[in-house]
């Protein structure tokens, strides 16, 4: 059995950042990176652009193999985990091999969640989480486009999150008639506030997309080369292409009996340590608290995955510069049909008290929309459509709990320059 000082299971953003942090403090420890994919690691965020053809699949790798070689890392592909023996520090792979570890990082990410819809397993449907998924969806979209050239190619998208909305736009551009079905009351729930979501939805409707919010799919059934989607109101939609974009679930199937605690994800402390000795976890596979301490688990986003990976790697290597992970703050950037929407942080609760303040510029019918949410004079969230600001700087203002004070009006009027001025004073 092979033995390594460090084993990193997963090679996306969290795993790669952890690897970088380990090597920064421990130049000599042996490291294995185990990637379940057969291709070089890619970011899930780029996959919609592979579907659209904007990004070539051979130019999207997060790291080339030469980078792993330069880090003196044993990088292995098609190395999926099957079981974890934390008592003896062993990881069993799907091919039966075992690898011993001194310290282990679980960064296995998430897999598409499939809703319990009658008949779904009997029809051809697509998901979008891996490069293979993206290539299959791209080919299917091209098929629908060829149908659209003769008649009216139809596509149904179940879920109006970022994946579903990106895919819907690509399908529209390919010439398909698209229906989006979302069980919650707005598109992009959890990403944007209601007003921003309504503006985004209006753009999609103007492009001919049928958007059905607050609706559920009861059943799908095969119809020739496509399927029929039966809605909760009794009506149906026919489609040659069906995309299920109903969210994700953490990839934890290999952890049964391991002693690693799992709730809605792997439970970790502020240093990304699990309940099992010498085992850490980071990225979409974990359950972490919100930065705001409101009991809401943080969603899986790229900046958080990087921060969690860095924290885990520094902790594993014993880096004295280690600081606790502060909790998740959402950050989303979304381009659609030539428009841009941004959101950072949280919205005000329905029962917000006098310590909360909400400032809005624009809205329905306006050229641009911006919303600031503050509590006790500190930024809690910012949402905008077609307004220019740097989401990374807003993220820092929230994390640092910067007192906005009398600069609220300036931030509302010109968020880009006002936020930069605030941060420049902190960085000096």
From TrEMBL:
This is NAD(P)/FAD-dependent oxidoreductase. Pfam families: Pyr_redox_2. InterPro entries: FAD-bd_OxRdtase (IPR050260), FAD/NAD-bd_sf (IPR036188), FAD/NAD-binding_dom (IPR023753), PadH (IPR054806). Its cofactor is FAD. Residues 4-289 form the FAD/NAD(P)-binding domain. Transmembrane segments: none annotated. Keywords: FAD, Flavoprotein. PANTHER family: NITRITE REDUCTASE [NAD(P)H], PYRIDINE NUCLEOTIDE-DISULFIDE OXIDOREDUCTASE DOMAIN-CONTAINING. Gene3D superfamilies: FAD/NAD(P)-binding domain. Belongs to the FAD-dependent oxidoreductase family. It comes from Aromatoleum evansii (Azoarcus evansii).
């Amino acid at each position: 059995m092979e033995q390594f000082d460090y084993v990193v299971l997963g090679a996306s953003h969290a795993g790669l950042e952890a690897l970088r942090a380990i090597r920064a403090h421990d130049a000599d420890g042996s490291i294995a990176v185990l990637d379940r994919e057969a291709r070089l690691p890619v970011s899930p965020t780029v996959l919609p652009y592979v579907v659209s053809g904007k990004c070539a699949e051979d130019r999207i790798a997060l790291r080339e193999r030469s980078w792993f070689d330069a880090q003196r890392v044993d990088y292995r592909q098609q190395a999926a985990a099957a079981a974890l023996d934390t008592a003896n520090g062993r990881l069993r792979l799907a091919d039966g091999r075992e690898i011993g570890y001194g310290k282990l990082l679980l960064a296995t990410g998430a897999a598409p969640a499939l809703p319990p819809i009658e008949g779904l397993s009997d029809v051809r449907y697509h998901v979008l989480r891996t490069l293979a998924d993206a290539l299959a969806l791209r080919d299917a979209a091209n098929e629908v486009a060829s149908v659209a050239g003769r008649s009216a190619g139809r596509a149904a998208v179940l879920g109006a999150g970022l994946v579903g909305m990106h895919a819907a736009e690509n399908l529209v551009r390919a010439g398909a008639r698209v229906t989006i079905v979302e069980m919650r009351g707005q598109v992009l729930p959890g990403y944007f506030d209601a007003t921003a979501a309504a503006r985004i939805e209006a753009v999609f409707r103007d492009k001919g997309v049928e958007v059905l919010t607050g609706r559920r799919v009861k059943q799908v059934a095969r119809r020739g080369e496509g399927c029929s989607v039966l809605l909760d109101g009794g009506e149906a939609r026919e489609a040659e292409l069906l995309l299920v974009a109903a969210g994700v679930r953490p990839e934890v199937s290999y952890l049964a009996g391991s002693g690693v605690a799992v709730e809605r994800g792997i439970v970790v402390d502020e240093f990304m340590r699990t309940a099992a000795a010498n085992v850490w976890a980071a990225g979409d596979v974990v359950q972490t608290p919100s930065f705001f301490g409101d009991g809401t688990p943080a969603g899986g986003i790229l900046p958080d995955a990087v921060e969690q990976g860095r924290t885990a790697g520094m902790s594993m290597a014993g880096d004295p510069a280690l600081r606790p992970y502060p909790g998740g703050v959402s950050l989303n950037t979304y381009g659609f049909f030539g428009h841009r929407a941004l959101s950072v942080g949280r919205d005000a609760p329905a029962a917000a008290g006098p310590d909360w303040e909400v400032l809005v510029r624009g809205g329905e019918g306006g050229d641009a929309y911006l919303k600031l949410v503050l509590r006790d004079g500190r930024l809690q969230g910012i949402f905008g459509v077609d307004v220019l600001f740097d989401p990374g700087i807003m993220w820092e203002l929230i994390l640092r709990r910067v007192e906005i004070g009398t600069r609220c009006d300036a931030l509302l009027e010109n968020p880009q320059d006002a936020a930069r001025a605030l941060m420049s004073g902190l960085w000096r």
